[in-house]
Amino acid sequence: MSRDDLNQGGIGVNSQRARDRLLERLFEKGIRNHAVLEALGSVPRHLFVDEALGYRAYEDTALPISYNQTISQPYIVARMTELLLGGRPTLDRVLEVGTGCGYQTAVLAGLVKRVYTVERILPLLEKAQQRFKSLKLLNVFSKHADGIMGWPGKGPFDGIIVTASPSEVPKELLAQLADGARLVIPVGDEGGQVLRVIQRQGDEFISTDREAVMFVPLLSGTVQ
Q1: Alpha carbon distance 99, 144 (integer Å)
Q2: What is the mean pLDDT of each run of 10 residues along the chain (224 residues)?
Q3: Annotated catalytic residue, options 2, 72, 134, 220
Q4: 65 in a domain, yes or no?
Q5: Number of domains in the chain
Q6: CATH number of the domain enclosing 65
Q7: Where are the beta strands (DSSP E) in the chain?
Q8: In DSSP terms, which residues pair with 209 in a beta bridge?
Q9: Domain coverage including residue 141
Q10: SS3 assignment, position 64
Q11: Beta carbons of 79 and 184 less than 8 angstroms apart
Q12: Is residue 143 part of a domain?
């Protein structure tokens, strides 16, 4: 497969046919929000994976990236985004904890007005920032910081999405939810994780567990 196949809409991994097959699989798995499907279909996932794995970019599977991290399975990206929106057509301010390669960020950028994303591993963030620039994602704002702390100066947020799993939900993130907003977060450890949706109602937080998932752990601190 040539580099042209990767970059053009021909028979390679970036073909419209490959993207359409992925969207069909997501629909079959229960993703019903057409705006979310359209957003995933518009993001060139092959640009977010290592070149050696480009031929697998439109498979519905997680793939390894550097620093022992992964690019999430498209179904999980779609599911978490769908849960975050909660039937609303758009959101104003969304916080993403764990930028990683930037794939989830790019999907969110097509659906919400402003995405604030935090990554603790600086080299990962710098690569993601290059992708955001090349894709002209002007509504994405990124920061190298400890994601457990969120981004206090930019909250409260209309939604928070976390792409790594803590053993307990950080109180700092709950405090940055606007009234009526949702936090979508995997919770647990190697023994098992569950995808949890927490909605703020005044000073109360209503939690609903959705389905079993498997994410890398949410760690504190930063890496240069």
Answers
A1: 9
A2: 35 72 96 96 93 91 90 97 94 97 97 97 97 97 96 95 96 97 94 96 96 93 92
A3: 72
A4: yes
A5: 1
A6: 3.40.50.150
A7: 63-64, 70-71, 93-97, 114-119, 140-144, 157-162, 177-189, 192-201, 204-213
A8: 196
A9: 61-213
A10: strand
A11: no
A12: yes
